[in-house]
Specification:
Radius of gyration: 15 Å
Helix content: under 10%
Organism: Gouania willdenowi (Blunt-snouted clingfish)
Keywords: Adaptive immunity, Immunity, Immunoglobulin domain, Receptor, Signal, T cell receptor
Domain Ig-like: 23-124
Strand content: 35-45%
Protein name: Ig-like domain-containing protein
Distance between the termini: 21 Å
Number of helices: 0
Structural class: mainly beta
CATH topology: Immunoglobulin-like
Signal peptide: 1-19
Number of strands: 12
Length: 144
């Protein structure tokens, strides 16, 4: 059985008065076509990432809202309980934090996208990100 994982490109703009510029997050356009049981690696590159930046991965199924998968912050990955680490994982590689999905299932067919933001002011090394960010998304393509 073949199915699709679709990636989208978008920009994240800072809207606060403390914003000193724009950060760009990019995903390659097009579909990823794999079969059940394989491993998917979905790319997400960014123009800048500092030790305080927070990167988020989301999954959006047809006719549904985006669901938070995981957060990369301070060199650590924090998974949503719905997306267990043994199947959904990510790691920093140069200017990229690719999402790896092990042992693909048909239910993994969806649109996946990433977002980059500054951490909340209350976030510290001892605090786990909660999967919410103030971002504006501009999609370059969409599912029909």
């Amino acid at each position: 059985m073949r199915w699709l994982l679709t990636g989208l490109s978008f920009w994240m703009f800072c809207s606060s008065t403390e914003c000193k510029g724009e950060e760009k997050v990019t995903q390659p356009p097009g579909d990823v076509i794999l079969t059940q049981g394989q491993t998917a690696t979905l790319k997400c590159t960014f123009s800048s990432l500092n030790e305080y930046s927070v990167l988020y991965w989301y999954k959006q199924e047809v006719n549904s809202y985006p669901k938070f998968i995981l957060t990369y912050y301070g060199g650590k990955i924090y998974n949503s309980p719905e997306f267990v680490k043994d199947r959904f994982d990510a790691e920093l590689k140069d200017s990229s934090v690719p999402l790896m999905i092990q042992d693909l299932h048909v239910c993994d067919s969806a649109v996946y996208y990433c977002a980059l933001s500054d951490p909340p002011k209350t976030l510290t090394d001892q605090t786990q990100p909660q999967g919410q960010a103030n971002v504006v998304l501009f999609f370059s393509n969409r599912l029909n």
